[in-house]
Amino acid sequence: MRIVVKVGTSTLAHPTGLLNIRRVEALCKVLSDIKNAGHEVILVSSGAIGMGVGKLSLKERPTDVPTKQAAAAVGQCELMYTYDKLFTEHNHTVAQVLLTGSDVEDDTRRAHFHNTMTRLLELGALPVVNENDTVGTDEIVIGDNDTLSAIVAVTVHADLLVLLTDIDGLYTADPRVDAEARLIPVVETLTAEIDALAGGRGSALSTGGMVTKLRAAHITTEAGIDMVIANGAAPQHLYQIMDGERVGTLFLGRKRT
């Protein structure tokens, strides 16, 4: 199975913006084990700007583009250093892949991206993908890694996309404010009613939220790819997901005849 796992800033970092070491170590261990079992793994990782905020001791996520780019430059170094160190401990080689909008919108550049990713997987590498926030402009303002991970999943013909976030899945209402909210275990078809459950944006350090996750669900399910939203606080849930057990919310890909 070829699986794309997207991990959000809220999963990777503490509210301070500094790395959640215990959780990242657990994530890398589980992904390494899944890879050892013979699966192909691609990690789409947020967190560059968020970690740069912590590393630079900024009081909050910047709103101006130059400071965002500076934070991304600092944070990306820490992210890749951490991933390289932790995956190497489990005998896996990581490859950094930074993308901008034009890399996936232009047909020629998208084909090059597909070819590179395919070859990396053939060589046994574990690609770590992120937006190139250091040189991007519009991508920082309107980009998000939920959508990026869906585009990556479609481009590399993945079998499954898993979005690890700070919530257990899609609920009938916001569980943070509504005690009656219920987890929706399976979404067979994306409807206007499902889209209306999205609510607002994510945490202060992230750019996403349920809106972008449902956008990712539209992209992947239209391409026939299943997608799961699960809580990243427990990376070991990936084992259950790979075994076909019900964890979080499963969005079924459209089956073509």
Structural description of this entry:
The protein has helices at 9-12, 21-36, 48-55, 65-89, 101-105, 107-122, 138-142, 145-155, 192-195, 210-222, 237-242; strands at 2-7, 40-45, 94-99, 126-131, 160-165, 186-187, 226-231, 249-251. It has 257 residues and is an alpha/beta fold. It has an eight-stranded mixed beta sheet with strand order 3-4-2-1-5-7-8-6, sandwiched between helices.
Please summarize what this structure is.
By secondary structure, this protein is an alpha/beta fold. It contains eleven helices and eight strands.
Instruction: Calculate the mean pLDDT score and round it.
Output: 88
- Terminal-residue CA separation: 21 Å
Count of DSSP E strands? Answer: 8
Let me know the largest β-sheet: 8 strands, mixed
Helix content: 40-55%
> What spatial form do the alpha-carbon principal axes imply?
globular
Widest sheet: strand ordering: 3-4-2-1-5-7-8-6
Beta percentage is 15-25%
Tally of individual helices: 11
**Secondary-structure element order, as H and E?**
EHHEHHEHHEHHEEHHEHE
- By secondary-structure content and strand pairing, the structural class works out as alpha/beta
